Amino acid sequence: MRAVRTKMTIPPVMDDIAAMLDFVDRQETVRRGPVGAHGYCMSGPYALAAAARYPDRIAAASSFYGTWLINDAEESPHLNLGKIGGEAYIACAEHDDLAPLPMAEELRGLFQRAGTVGEIELYPGVHHGFAFPQRWCYDKPAAERHWERLIALYQRRLG
Fold it and tell me: Which of 48, 95, 105, 126 is the most buried (most CB within 10 A)?
């Protein structure tokens, strides 16, 4: 996964998202209007980047135990938090080597300073990957909470 992640950067993923949005827009059976984006682990940054790149289109974005949300890349998600036009929800696991607590706290400060609508929530006592039943670290109460939070976000912003 790390080999894939190091070769996959935000700009080409945003090109893919543009193509997906264009495809959706051409479908007769799809309701017009805002959309949502959410990502887990290495796709968490892409959901946030998409919300910043397409602020008039993506009204709800969430990242669940997203990795490298603060990094040295010029397209790092933390640099564009203020460009998110909708609402963002970022869920961090207390035990996460790929998104350690100091990074989550730094992100919280950046999020607030950027004026981003939404919240960053720390899920206490859980590990990276807590939402998937097949993982060793699955935590049912945290997984259920994450679904509640995601569905509530989509209901608020997407109807």
Answer: 48
- Tens digits of residue pLDDT in 18-60: 999 999 999 999 988 999 999 999 999 999 999 999 999 999 9
pLDDT tens, 81-101? Answer: 999 999 999 999 999 999 999
Return the CATH number at 115.
3.40.50.1820
CA triplet 62, 67, 9: central angle to 5 degrees?
90
How many domains does the chain fold into? 1
Q: Is residue 57 part of a domain?
A: yes
Q: How wide is the angle at C-alpha 56 spanned by C-alphas 54 and 58, nearest 5°?
A: 60
Query: CA–CA separation, 57 vs 20, rounded Å?
Result: 12
The whole domain housing 107 covers 2-17+33-158
What pTM value is reported for the model? Answer: 0.93
Task: Report whether 86 contacts 61 (CB < 8 A).
Answer: yes
